[in-house]
Amino acid sequence: MVAAAGEGAAGTVITTPPRRSVVFTYGTLKRGFGNHALMEELTRSGDAVFLGSYRTQEKYPLVCGPYRVPFLLNLPGSGERVTGELYGVSSGGLARMDELEGTSRGHYERLPIKLVVLEEGEAEEAEAYFAHSSYARELWMKNGRRGLRAYSEKEARGRSSKWCT
């Protein structure tokens, strides 16, 4: 990662830290799950940094879609306060996450979300990958209007059906 540099007063060099987005992960990107390898790779390259465990400030539905894929639905006030992990991510790392999450293919949308630190309750603004609005309500209905507090091993392993519910 390259930081921009310039000259300040008296010829001192000023290094501007790279711009980072703050992203809330609640499913397979969390530690211990299948897509976390991307976060590990981004961390090793300096394109991501783990910021801690958080939960959503408001209730949101967290549901499992086809093939046990977790989706956060942009239906604030429904569901549960969802727990997950927060990462600071460079623009290059964010592009890699967007590709994985299929934002250009209409799978997820990256939208603002308010979070609180699990231990301290301090508010933080971030972004999260929500199910695309074109099918979010359908997922909520198929899950019986029941949401999860956290995506866990139980949901990742699934049951006999392709849905978590």
Q: What is the gist of this entry?
A:
The protein has 165 residues and is of the alpha+beta class.
Question: What can you tell me about this protein's structure?
Answer:
By secondary structure, this protein is of the alpha+beta class. It has a single domain, classed as Roll (Hypothetical upf0131 protein ytfp), CATH 3.10.490.10. It is built from four helices and nine strands. It has helices spanning 36-44, 91-101, 136-142, 153-157, and strands at residues 4-7, 13-16, 20-25, 48-56, 62-64, 70-72, 83-90, 108-117, 123-131. The protein has a five-stranded mixed β-barrel. The protein has a two-stranded antiparallel sheet with strand order 1-2. Strands 5-6 form a two-stranded antiparallel ribbon. Strand 5 (62-64) and strand 6 form a beta hairpin. The longest helix is centred in the middle third of the chain and has 11 residues, at 91-101. The protein is globular and about 40 Å long. The protein starts with a strand and ends in an 8-residue tail after the last helix. The model is unreliable at 1-9 and 159-163 (pLDDT under 50). One of its GO terms (molecular function) is gamma-glutamylaminecyclotransferase activity. The active site is at 101 (proton acceptor). Keywords: Acyltransferase, Transferase. InterPro entries: AIG2-like_dom, GGACT, GGCT-like, GGCT-like_sf. Belongs to the gamma-glutamylcyclotransferase family.
